[in-house]
Amino acid sequence: MGMDAQHKSGCSGMSVQMQVVNHGSYYYMEEIMFFTRKSNRRITQFVLAFIGVSSLAGAQAQTVISEVLYDAAGTDNGNVFVELFGAPGTLLDGLLLEGVNGADGSVYRSVLLAGTIPSDGVFVIGDDSGDGTSLVSGVDLIREVDLQNGPDSVVLRNGSLILDALGYGDFGGGVFAGEGSAAPDVPSGSSLARFNPAVDTHNNLLDFMVLDLPTPGSVPVSAVPLPPAVLLFLSGILGLVGIARKQG
Asked: Which residue has the higher pLDDT, 39 or 108?
């Protein structure tokens, strides 16, 4: 990343020109003006804004659990699902989904995954109705994924490496196998879904929300992965806008 700044005669501000390079693609922010009586202070704020977004970019998730419906309205058979989110083309062969009992920490269900994350980054594992089909729309894989009601956890692992984990419900003195603090236990027919599947703070309570209407195969537009250089570029603009507002 290169950045040139110069004082302009006749004004008490600065003109900043920034060039961001990402694998041969160029993004320009030209002639963005911000006026200040203390330019050094504003430059510091500008740099801190970039540092902050660099940290956020570092929190970008890899393959994660993005939505879980474990208690369908009516029968669970063929209606529940687990949704994953990750980079398109990621091979899931050999990964395991495990249901972990909140009472004693035992693994009550182990699901062997197979397939590849499609171009939209969303991979839906629908519960088997018992005849090799699922009532979940848009499934990419059909498996027995009828998870217990909480307090319980579901873990995504690659061998001994845990890729992601979601714990839900009030564990009390039970065994929590999720991340951070547990997400709430949802009512029948509702699902737990990430606010933004592209970001994992490793805290289930902060990362997940309750959806009254489950959305298998669909994630927020904000979850579409962006190159780090674009994140920095956009954050720089937001940082400058914030500075301008404070100055005004």
From this structure: 108
